[in-house]
């Protein structure tokens, strides 16, 4: 890896990395802590705006508990770092990759809306529903969602 940065605000964690002309941002799933489970079940909703710009008026309604870490100052710095990384990519349409498991998948889904102009590829594993199904800001051709089934 050319660079790796960790962003930790317990119980949440993210990692940003650069490798082979791509920028990665991965979010950790739910831990065993009660604080993390309570955050997951956070009641309420929040509008997540395209490119993190509420002036556009374009947003998707999301579960508030998944947005807590994503909207923290620590992860906002991670977004700035990711944008700096993306400015060095040889192919802007094949540059930003967001991923996560469980809660991390939900957070990465919201990050895909906030980073819309970077046309991110989104890969999630066991992700709970994070936004309402009518969210038009998620590009289905750029989403790979793996679901556990028996």
What tags apply to this protein structure?
6-stranded mixed β-sheet; alpha/beta; 150 residues; globular; single chain; 8 strands; 4 helices; two-stranded antiparallel ribbon
Structure, described:
This protein has 150 residues and is of the alpha/beta class. Helix content is 27%, strand content 31%. It is built from four helices and eight strands, in the order βββαββααβαββ. The chain has helices at residues 34-40, 64-70, 73-86, 103-114; strands at residues 3-9, 12-19, 22-27, 45-49, 59-63, 96-101, 121-125, 143-146. The chain has a six-stranded mixed beta sheet with strand order 1-2-3-6-7-8, covered by helices on one side. It has a two-stranded antiparallel sheet with strand order 4-5. Strand 2 and strand 3 (22-27) form a beta hairpin. Helix 2 (64-70) packs across helix 4 (103-114). The chain is globular and about 40 Å long. The protein starts with a strand and ends with a strand. The mean pLDDT is 88.
